[in-house]
């Protein structure tokens, strides 16, 4: 079952100093994002805005490849939290392989980043002409000895590192036919 936002939903900082979303009816959603990763006051309490609702539905629409509704909702809500509250990031492109085809991603698009040993699946939560902030949909991944990218972790990369999953899927379908 997919959750439908309403005017009772409220963002707040939980006791464990992680961003939380009160969904009403005694339901709480806890994000993995701690206070130090976010731009919001300690005593923050904000409504789930019209913009948040638009992002939520946009992300849900792009996450159709995730079959379990609860996991889709979790990814969409974490995407909204990153888009709305995450501290601005500097690009950390050096962890990922440059791509020959430059791709300008769209908000909510599912993309991949190449770390030599595998492709990480990511969702675009903010984009500009040169760089993109994305959220990991892959399992926890060690990028370097001192850098781990957890599931739902955010990272900013230059757009020359991005692989379009849509284009990859189309090319795969063409290879199957031809």
Summarize the helices and strands and which ones pair or pack.
Elements (H helix, E strand, L loop, with lengths): L9 E4 L4 E7 L2 E8 L10 E3 L2 H13 L6 H17 L24 E5 L4 E9 L3 E6 L4 E4 L2 E3 L4 E5 L3 E3 H13 L1
Antiparallel strand pairs: 1-2, 1-4, 2-3, 5-6, 5-11, 6-7, 7-10, 8-9
Helix pairs in contact: 1-2
Structural account:
This protein has 178 residues and is α+β, with helices and mostly antiparallel strands. It folds into two domains: 10-85, no CATH class; 93-177, no CATH class. The chain has three helices and eleven strands, in the order E-E-E-E-H-H-E-E-E-E-E-E-E-H. The strands form three sheets. Strands 10-7-6-5-11 form a five-stranded antiparallel β-sheet. Strand 2 and strand 3 form a beta hairpin. The radius of gyration is 17 Å and the shape is globular. Belongs to the ZapC family. InterPro entries: ZapC (IPR009809), ZapC_C (IPR048372), ZapC_N (IPR048373). It is found in: Cytoplasm. Residues 3-87 form the Cell-division protein ZapC N-terminal domain. One of its GO terms (cellular component) is cytoplasm.
- The neighbouring-strand order within the major sheet is 10-7-6-5-11
Number of helices: 3
Query: Which regions contain 5 or more consecutive residues with pLDDT less than 50?
Result: 169-178
Q: In this structure, how is the largest beta sheet organized? A: 5 strands, antiparallel
**What structural class is derived from the secondary structure elements?**
alpha+beta
Beta-strand residue percentage: 25-35%
What is the global morphology? globular
Average of the residue pLDDT scores: 90
Order of H and E elements: EEEEHHEEEEEEEH
Q: Tell me the distance between the termini.
A: 39 Å
Computed Rg: 17 Å
Helix-residue proportion: 10-25%
Per DSSP E runs of 2 or more residues, the count of β-strands stands at 11
Number of domains: 2
């Amino acid at each position: 079952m997919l959750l439908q936002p309403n005017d009772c939903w409220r963002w707040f900082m939980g006791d464990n100093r992680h961003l939380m979303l009160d969904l009403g009816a005694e339901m709480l959603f806890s994000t993995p994002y701690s206070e130090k990763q976010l731009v919001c006051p300690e005593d923050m309490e904000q409504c789930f805005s019209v913009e948040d609702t638009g992002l939520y539905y946009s992300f849900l629409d792009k996450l159709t490849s995730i079959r379990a509704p609860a996991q889709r909702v979790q990814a969409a809500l974490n995407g909204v939290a990153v888009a709305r509250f995450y501290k601005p990031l500097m690009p950390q492109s050096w962890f990922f392989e440059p791509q020959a085809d430059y791709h300008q991603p769209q908000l909510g698009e599912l993309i991949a980043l190449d770390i030599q040993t595998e492709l990480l699946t990511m969702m675009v939560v903010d984009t500009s002409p040169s760089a993109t902030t994305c959220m990991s949909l892959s399992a926890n991944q060690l990028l370097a000895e001192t850098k781990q990218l957890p599931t739902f972790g955010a990272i900013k990369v230059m757009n020359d590192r991005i692989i379009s999953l849509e284009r990859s899927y189309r090319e795969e379908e063409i290879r199957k036919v031809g």
